[in-house]
Design brief:
homotetramer; 435 residues; Four Helix Bundle (Hemerythrin (Met), subunit A); three-stranded antiparallel sheet; 10 helices; binds fe (iii) ion; Ergothioneine biosynthesis protein EgtB (chains A, B, C, D); EgtB (chains A, B, C, D); oxidoreductase (chains A, B, C, D); SUMF_dom (chains A, B, C, D)
Chain lengths: 435, 435, 435, 435
Amino acid sequence: MSSAHDAVIDRSDSLHAKEWLRAYQRVRAATEAICAPLHKEDYMVQSMADVSPPKWHIAHVTWFFEAFILKPFYAAYQILDPAYDHLFNSYYETHGVPFPRAERGTLSRPTVDDVYRYRAHVDLAMQALLTDPPQEHLPEILRRLELGLPHEQQHQELLLMDIKHILAQNPLCPAYRDDLVPAHAPEVKALGWLAYRAGIQHIGHDASAGGFAYDNEMGRHRQFVEAFEIADRPVTNGEFLEFMQAGGYTKPEHWLADGWATVKAEGWQAPLYWVERDGVWHHYTLGGLVPVDMSAPVCHVSFFEADAYAQWAGARLPTEAEWETVARDVPLTGNFVDQDHLQPVATKRAEGMPSQMFGDVWEWTGSAYRPYPGFRKLPGSLGEYNGKFMSGQMVLRGGCCATPADHIRATYRNFFPPQARWAFSGFRLARDTDA
Amino acid sequence: MSSAHDAVIDRSDSLHAKEWLRAYQRVRAATEAICAPLHKEDYMVQSMADVSPPKWHIAHVTWFFEAFILKPFYAAYQILDPAYDHLFNSYYETHGVPFPRAERGTLSRPTVDDVYRYRAHVDLAMQALLTDPPQEHLPEILRRLELGLPHEQQHQELLLMDIKHILAQNPLCPAYRDDLVPAHAPEVKALGWLAYRAGIQHIGHDASAGGFAYDNEMGRHRQFVEAFEIADRPVTNGEFLEFMQAGGYTKPEHWLADGWATVKAEGWQAPLYWVERDGVWHHYTLGGLVPVDMSAPVCHVSFFEADAYAQWAGARLPTEAEWETVARDVPLTGNFVDQDHLQPVATKRAEGMPSQMFGDVWEWTGSAYRPYPGFRKLPGSLGEYNGKFMSGQMVLRGGCCATPADHIRATYRNFFPPQARWAFSGFRLARDTDA
Amino acid sequence: MSSAHDAVIDRSDSLHAKEWLRAYQRVRAATEAICAPLHKEDYMVQSMADVSPPKWHIAHVTWFFEAFILKPFYAAYQILDPAYDHLFNSYYETHGVPFPRAERGTLSRPTVDDVYRYRAHVDLAMQALLTDPPQEHLPEILRRLELGLPHEQQHQELLLMDIKHILAQNPLCPAYRDDLVPAHAPEVKALGWLAYRAGIQHIGHDASAGGFAYDNEMGRHRQFVEAFEIADRPVTNGEFLEFMQAGGYTKPEHWLADGWATVKAEGWQAPLYWVERDGVWHHYTLGGLVPVDMSAPVCHVSFFEADAYAQWAGARLPTEAEWETVARDVPLTGNFVDQDHLQPVATKRAEGMPSQMFGDVWEWTGSAYRPYPGFRKLPGSLGEYNGKFMSGQMVLRGGCCATPADHIRATYRNFFPPQARWAFSGFRLARDTDA
Amino acid sequence: MSSAHDAVIDRSDSLHAKEWLRAYQRVRAATEAICAPLHKEDYMVQSMADVSPPKWHIAHVTWFFEAFILKPFYAAYQILDPAYDHLFNSYYETHGVPFPRAERGTLSRPTVDDVYRYRAHVDLAMQALLTDPPQEHLPEILRRLELGLPHEQQHQELLLMDIKHILAQNPLCPAYRDDLVPAHAPEVKALGWLAYRAGIQHIGHDASAGGFAYDNEMGRHRQFVEAFEIADRPVTNGEFLEFMQAGGYTKPEHWLADGWATVKAEGWQAPLYWVERDGVWHHYTLGGLVPVDMSAPVCHVSFFEADAYAQWAGARLPTEAEWETVARDVPLTGNFVDQDHLQPVATKRAEGMPSQMFGDVWEWTGSAYRPYPGFRKLPGSLGEYNGKFMSGQMVLRGGCCATPADHIRATYRNFFPPQARWAFSGFRLARDTDA
Ligand SMILES: [Fe+3]
Ligand SMILES: [Fe+3]
Ligand SMILES: [Fe+3]
Ligand SMILES: [Fe+3]
């Protein structure tokens, strides 16, 4: 079993629980590796309500295993501190009252050391449970573990997003790491268009083919997708700068009404983290403040900015069905967290096929995040995992430079509100095929 | 020509501009009839930012004809007051700077009499223009008139919504009118379900068949709609009361996360305008405060409430494609403004076919308001009419008791934010067909 | 009896209640004269939370007589509408729940005509009561009438302040009246300083000398006032413009911390109602938009602006004890509402004595509004009249061009929050006497 | 020289700078002793905008010496990090742009260790400077040191206030220390009243008598204080509980209008930090959550609550002149930080003289914080120290259980907004002497 992903797609009876334990340990270790460069002070900051302090993240993912596996299925489990259940419940309203999200930054106790003790305590219990699991509960335990591991991987990406946002507030512009793998930036080629014919597409996760997927990727269903064309790579920083120089942020005609209101209210003039220094555009990265690489995909733009660019360029964003139709046939490789760039980078474009569908930047689609036909929530509190957020958000696809490679799929549906910019979010153009 | 609708679907060369003039006059007169019961004081109130003072509505619809027809195409037109262009532009950012929406209630001048003089001034000019139109501009004039008339009809419905909201704020609960047509409330039958097979559906306005439609109803395109079932009537007040009595407003498990946050922030405990008096639920209607008719469709609920009810009932809302598939074959009749109830009423259910698809209440669908494939904005400032609102809103279908009968179509897409409640909005259940 | 003031200072047994009735009728008529130029639409606007719609003012002052005189003391009184007690109670929390202040603009009913009927109804009852008063209650009736008449006069000034604010929001800049008495603007002389010696001063209303005063002007008490100097006239528009031109609104060193925060939050760059047109400063007046008269006292400045000007000028504002010490010996004449300028005007300065202490502009003092030693609230709900506002406000003295001449006294204490600007508020400089 | 206070009152030529150095080191060490029990995580929290993270406090007080002494007067001084000047400037707008106060909690860097290095760096430089001072600047250096030491002492008290607020947010209710000195709570005696005759009082710091005082305690001036009576001890928790049980928080008649609005907006039902557990009132203290000691002075009440209690009790708060008149003759002893209770405690009342005038709780007065006659701001940026806050705040007197004993004086004027509750603030009653 070479990765967490391999693990999570085989929940057969024959699989030993110990293999799951190894997957568990690998995912847990990856979280701690992400936090290794942090000072205790960094663990504490909540730079906006959407951001959680890193300390909270590492406690919360631990709580998930405690609340949904250890407490219900491990009779011998000893609770470390009963207060943690309240403090580290993120949003499961049917599982007690969550501590208010916007006040997570006020909790100095438990300390970072306490929280690592909590992790060790839960890890030990998980090890004991999976070493000698109660057979009658094993299928349900593994089903929840299969959700708990990608849950922690999602928080690994959130940790990187949040650490970036936290350090970027600081006038000192401190680097998170100074040993990131640099990009070899080739000259980016002109954008090409790929044409797809109209037809019925099967969209969503194919449960019969096995493998894990979130509830929101099901049910698999048919969609009629009219003929369309799609760009063979994402929009670059250089192209986005042309939009800026053409007055893109000052002309309401390109914008959705809510987007234009946001531009004015927030004073947006460039993507998040961009700052002009002596006439040169820089942006804050996890390696510090550097000049913008004009060949790399533009990142940290909202849906509103992606849509405005597309309108300005005479194009539009792809729907998620179009995107999935294209991505289905593309190898699942790319610039993921494993490449250790932690920043989107330019790639040599393959002729005649789409590049960078996976990795680099999450790609905003033109689709609102709503349930598929046949969608069913998970039973119990875990039913709150995805379904209740299906309002007011837009779908993004393909993963990014902060996503674990074994976490992503062609059917994976990420989602953020249209004004959100702190995810590694970019976009790719699409357009209707002329009759 | 029996209605404005008849007029607007025939823009042939052979049509005399005078027939258009009669349609114009009919629509204009309908607006003034709606305002006839108002005091000057009622014309002034802006009870929330979304509501406009009635005076503003009647000036704004007049401005639309002035700005988009008279100024560009009627050389002899004399502007009454140049300041009106700023005051009565609603949201056309590419046509000057609109006066701030939330401050419309601060404008005591021009007075109501001034605004009626403005209406008369523009009506006179429109009459002159259409009596002797410049032939080279006639097609464009009629195209804009074809948009201007339904625009004014939309504001007729908004006037009734806003008047209701304005008077409902008043502790005196004044009736707008005391001569409304009462409902003959038959006993409502048990809800029935109608089944539809899976298949490709053609969705959106069929331009080749003629008739007017907004840009957002195009382009016509194919959608694959999986098998589904739909309720044969909307949910009633009585049914919604069961949800309330089952603790619907107090249980987060039924709600979307944004919905639950809204329930708590706003303190919602019942639909808008409902108030309990001596243990009996009353609601404010345009005829005053009356006991709730338990057989009539529930009204003034948000998308969030409709969705929560559906989740509680083990069902869901229909998509707009499902709704349109059903509505396409239903006669376009119902309880519209012409019936003069100005309130949804119970109807005798027809066996084996859906009732009340049109009229009574706008029906929330589960579809976010986004462009159809092939959508094109109108050129110029009129391009701001619909397209820029395609973010953060949900689609409603079918018209309501405040909609002019000749304004609605099976393809008509109305839209409001998911928390909005002051429209005459209700809903109908749908569900997946079991395999 | 030549004025309301004369009336209110003689509450002797021998006075006929009919004389009081005439005073009542004179004050009531003055209110209606102020409203005569209004359209019904003007009566409806609440341009900010602090402003009340004129309709509300004229109903509220009527309610005062109904609630505090007619209901308790006139057994035959017939209530016109029981709902009015809730709608027109301003802030008397011990007299039922007042209708929310910020929502007064949402009440279209009762209409303006209804409210005038309410006035007539109460006036008739007051006439009946005072024509044949119940002897056992007469002293208390007259005591309350003595408060109710200046209460209505206060609202006369508020009406003018609020009407000005309402019409000033309108881009049409409509004039309230076009027949105001113009100012004969003499050349203003250089500012002179008048010196006062240190000593014990008796401050506050001298009850033994008779005459009406509000509770907040008592108890009369001793204050030791150190030697000081005071300017012989208020600061003029021309002088204030020098402060502006010296960058006064851009330099934090002149400002109180709360003042500077307000300047930045509100974007203040000039007094309220000032606007630059083609390089010339204009300001909105009740006669419309006119060039600023540089010789007239500056008006519509906040305490923060007055204090910042004083700091910039190396001076300070007088305390209210200093102001009263000076004013005590000055004739009670000036530019009041009776002069019908409705705007501060320049006056010829009298040599060696302070000018414009009364009228023109309310003068901000450096004193916070707090109770005098020996202050006693009135009994019952009327105790809420003044005392509960003694927090967070600053004292102003001397009346203004919108104050009835018979309403003002040397001991009169007006008060507003330090950021308020819609009163006719200006200021006069003071400074310590060098040792 | 036995204390910082002794040091700061003797700025004679003969004093060796080394004695000042020892005072400096003693004050600096006291700050670090306060922080010794903290975890790094505690240093980071900003629990509300008014609270600063402890890390910020210890850096800011260091910055004060760097900015106002080392940079101007120590030529050899090497700046450790130029960015700190921006980060740790609190509010000196004339000394660059301060980092936004409400965002202090977002700064994880410099770390706690970095900040202690900064302290050591500055301490070393101060040692060098004071060991061999430039004679021509020595008077100004000492003048600024004389301000810098009480400045740091003020922040010592703020540290304790802020640490309490930070830890109190935490549902775990962690104790700051578990080794505080417990109170020996004697039975509190009935409240007694002390009478003072009317007369001229000299108020404010007597510069001729020597000793340090803040600018806001000058100029010394005369006030006429009418006869009054004052309580011989502060109001206790037990007495305040009677007010609560009498419905004090539910009756608007006791409250200032702003106070009542705050009660409703904030949902106040008890002093800050009070919580009912199983029918017993507890409160959070720096030693953890404990039952309220009914004999100790009530603490963590706002001016609004103090004033409401006084109105309910038929009394009032003393003015600051009254308070100072009384305090002038009382020994400067009490429950200060040096007693290590860190909580107000009951004391045996001395017969015939006021007790607890100093220490235990800051006592709200009825006086707004405004300048004395003859007040002069310090020159330069230090002029922002006190003067610019003289708006919207009320004066408190006497120091508290978190105040260093050598920091307080009878003339000392503390100030907070009327709604503030996180200071150790209580109150004492006063009343007018009946004629
Ligand atoms: Fe989570
Ligand atoms: Fe419109
Ligand atoms: Fe009033
Ligand atoms: Fe400080």
